[in-house]
Records
---
Amino acid sequence: KPHRPSRMEKEKAMERQVLSCADALITNTPVMKDNFVRLNPGLDLEKRMVVIPNGFDPEDFEDIKPENKQNSRFTLTYTGALYGRRKPDKILEAIGNLVSSGQVQKDKILIRFIGSYKPDVLKNLIDKNGLKGSVELFGYMDHKECLKYMTGSDAMLLIEGGGPGSEAFYTGKVFEYIQTSNPILAVIPEKGAAADIIRKTKTGIVCDWADVKAIEKGFAALYTSWLQGENNIIPDKAEIARFDRKTLTGNLAELLNNICKNPV
């Protein structure tokens, strides 16, 4: 529900005061920075604002030893919450279409949801799309245990719905997914910040969240690669390394040093 106009006006004025007075500004994604620069002409934000994104901790996976996966079914795993615009409707519809058309064998796929969601809603979607027996539902679990499920999968499922402002954000889980070394099927705004990261790191296939045909194509490509024992997703390790939190902390330290040396 939108806030009162008076509150929005006050918050906009407070935001502009911060943007005007700060020696430096940090934003989370390039899209957010572009929006700030575009919506605030005359404040010289292009020079004073830097992007320091979320990242990953390599230590999280130190004790998780990826084994040679011998899954009898192509296993696609989603972790996290499902709520609001983050819905599995389109991905389950797409997979259901592939199964009903014979492009994908139902007994050769397994989609896992781990986290927080409304079980009844999800079960209805599973039944509606003819996927009973091909989907497993788990609640929240210990993080280390969850990481084992992730690394033991054949691919990761990322879901983000569209809508006003959605292109500027991404969920931090994208970086954890990248660390699994599994290809990512990203059902997200195709021109958003998360899509940019996946394309730059070459870690998956981006399918616009509202385009069922594109999702079908993306899932089928990963499924076919698995059937053939191939891996067509070759990550860019140098690009991925930029999102190591130690590197990002170094970027922050450099920014603070520059401010101290050259105060505005």
---
Amino acid sequence: REAKQAGRAGTAAEVAEILKGKGTPKTLLAYVKKVRAGFLTENKLGSWKKYGSFEKLLEAFLTNSRGNLEDVPLLSITPDFVDKFEAYLRKQPNQRAKDSKAGLNPNTINKLMRCFKAVMNQAYKHERTLKPESNPFLNKNYADIPVTKDKLTAEEITALSEVELEEGCLMWHARNAFLLSYYCAGIRASDVIQLKWDNIKQGAGEARLQYQMGKNNKLKDIVLVSQAQEILLKYAKKGSKPSDFIFPYLDNKAKYAKALTLAERKALPTAEAKKLFDAVNAREVQINKQLRKVAK
């Protein structure tokens, strides 16, 4: 009763019941945790990670100068509260930027605000005590700002492919993964990392790459040009199984390796799906780090 009157989250036991789906959170941070726990249960790990960033910043925003967390009732989230949180985000440092004084990228802020909006829309959809016309996000939109990215020239791609690297070193693998992506219509790094020999098909006198995109489930069928085939030949070994990963970034002996299709990966037990998700994320970071070395 005291927690409710103070507008704070309930006890640890009550929060546990909420996360198990047995309770209904009435406060903002508790509701965010419930939404995020749902993503984890459904193996929507990309959303789980994205909302984790939002949750962390929201928790910092709700922590007072004495270091005490003050969760707030869903009913008290007003347009003014939303604006204050957005202003708070604009003051946060961008830890990835070389300039220590740089703030968060505007599109990063928009992404975080879209998370906030989605959480509140869900709350207003399912919470009977919340009236739809009172939703603080009714007239708020957070469209990304168009960004122009530099593209490598044909000459730069050639220079990259001709850098002398020791076969089998981390830079060598990263360069091969990048070039395979380039020659196959720009496959996302996360998909390249998870490619298996079963994704390579032979027929009608040509080799093809067939896979399902992890981000949007779209099926892709790409003719493998000679440069892409040359890269694959570097990894072809006797005794390789169709279920083996092409690149040596993931463990062929792991339980997640038995999942051949995207549907099978999404059906993995949550703990195993998270192992795969974490491994892919770590390898993406590694590839980017090694590519920067190759670029130099």
---
Amino acid sequence: RFLGEETIAVGKKDVTAHHFVRERTMSGAQVGTERTEVWYAADSGLILRNERTVEARSDTPIGPTTYSESGEFHLVEVDPA
């Protein structure tokens, strides 16, 4: 889903970005949620930032288990060195 256009700082530059989010709900043997947010440079489509969280729960022979993940990466400079 497109959330809108934003200006974000990349290094010392302000970059116009398109902000998208994807949310997913898991059901069945594994239940939980996944959310990913991505910011793309409006002029080139270059990924500027990505944030992701996941939580999934499952029943196992030894009891319930939960998998959690949280991570992000971001571009530090627009121009290659």
---
Amino acid sequence: MKPASIKDIASKANVSITTVSFILNGKAEQMRISKAVIEKVNTIIKEFDFKPNQVARSLRTGNTQTIGLIVEDISNPFFASIARKIEDKAYKKGYKISYSSTENDPVKAKELIEMFKSRQVDAYIIAPVPGIEGEIKQLLAERIPVVIFDRNLPDMEVNCVVVDNFNGTYIATKHLIDSGKKNIAFVTVDLHVDQINNRFLGYEKALQDHGIQFNKDIYTEIPFDSTDDNTNAQLMLLFEKNPKIDAVLFSTNYLAIKGLLVLKLINKEINDDFSIVAYDDHDVFKLHTPPISVVDQPIEEMAEKIIDVLLNELASASNTLIKKEASKIILQPKFIKR
């Protein structure tokens, strides 16, 4: 059986094809179409189980109802969780999400932006990597809605939703100091980007405020593209060379998971004398014995704010006369003691 067309709906409703098109594209009230006609047409659309051709529709309206989501690594639990939340919230507002990973490679990030441009996505949500500032500026110049998250670009007038990373590690380090720890190691990734830098600065400031000198011997940077074997070797070296370490703060959850495996390999117990804190929660930390304390990022709230800002941008994108100030939203993390 041949699927119904707009013409079939118009014929049965005894209205013009243009009227049906306005109703399908959400412009019925704008075109002063009566509620009775809208209800009649919508009933027939449901009756025919009519699905508009998205390609044809996007050509008419200039909208594809899709949003490009570009993250560092979609397999990373933080990005996977936030992508899922964003997808759910966008879908409820009538948008689909297309997402890809940059692997922290600016060349790949630029290619992804171009790919999404060719697909004519309506807007972008980007966890920016260093080196793509020019591409983001170009999107803004073309008045394409953009929201960046996870990392701020302080020198750019762009919508952003970020977490107060400085405060996250400050409160975690303070908790460890308050529980009597004095030799707190900091394990991080060798990415000198806004949020990772701020996590170190929060740790450093908490030490300073409590009269503890920063010890570079118990500060370790793991290369972003490090193999498991190299990461394990680097962490083992940290613990072997510094037996006085009484706590470790990991700046990402995937590093903390690797750290837990290494501690198991060297038979080092987590107890009253040796503590672990991870930045970003994960099921592993709840299930581990003993459970691991974490700095928890408000993923649900983050996704909500990102979609709210983006939908607001999409709604006003057609009005080129209004110059809006960029939204800068900073959310607070929460320390979960376990």
